[in-house]
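This entry is listed below:
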Amino acid sequence: METNRTLGRSGIDVSPLGFGCWAIGGEWSTPDGQPLGWGKVDDEESVRAIHRALDLGVTFFDTADTYGAGHSERVLGRALGKRRADVAVATKWGNVFDEGTRTALGQDASVEHVREALTASLARLGTDYVDLYQLHVSDAHPDQGAQLRDACEELVGEGLIRAYAWSTDDPARAAVFAEGAHCAAVQHALNVFQDAPEMLALCAESELASINRSPLAMGLLAGRRQDRLEAGDIRSRPPEWLPGFGDEGTGADPDWLARVDAVRSVLTSEGRTLAQGALGWIWARSPRTIPIPGFRSVDQAEQNAGAIAKGPLTAAQLAEIDRLLGR
């Protein structure tokens, strides 16, 4: 059984597993048609899945203003309703979009945009505060990051946010935010195939929570072969930063599927599903980790939340996975 986590220095108590709300935003794209969502969704099923997650003890939900061009925040806010105070809500800012056309329009990491973006997110979420506010521009200049950190401190002082973080895979950038008194976390990629020892070390040194996106390697560790992807799914036309998938709808990269097969027996030990084993690997890496797998159905919600009872893998299992992957 995996125990609850504290969001870094914030004192905010959350479940050891969060739910990532990118997929429930539905379809959206760049102006030239590059899909940025995970395909079509059923909003009512998304709401049912969130309610099921709440019933199973999940108390942390991570979204972003740009997911579905605002739609994810609206669905999450509606689903939480009167149970808003029972959970911690994390959202992100730094991207601009047209909600009407569901089109991404670029980025804005200016200090002036922070308050404007937060005001809009609060309205869509139907709340008057955000528990964790995260910069969504992973490669913003560190000097700019310092200014945005200070802007977040002002928002904490006004009671509009409780804590903040940077969503980045660069430990040096994360360290800039960590200098702020109310910085509570860093969000970064972490899964069986993409380890992040330097970032985990920073989280330990700076007392930050490690919020883990892509914990199931964009679905490759969820147990499905991912060989049929609809046109509105980002994995059907993967951008450069998305590993593991071929070009133009060819599905999962055979090399990545071979790696999944190599570690399958370890991850599915003790009655775990493949996804539950992948989440157990993350918990075994650090007591500060909070994986945030995505979901689009009640079944996925139940499987992900079921990992909590299974708990982390053992040190011996981690070593065996390293051996099988040749690292």
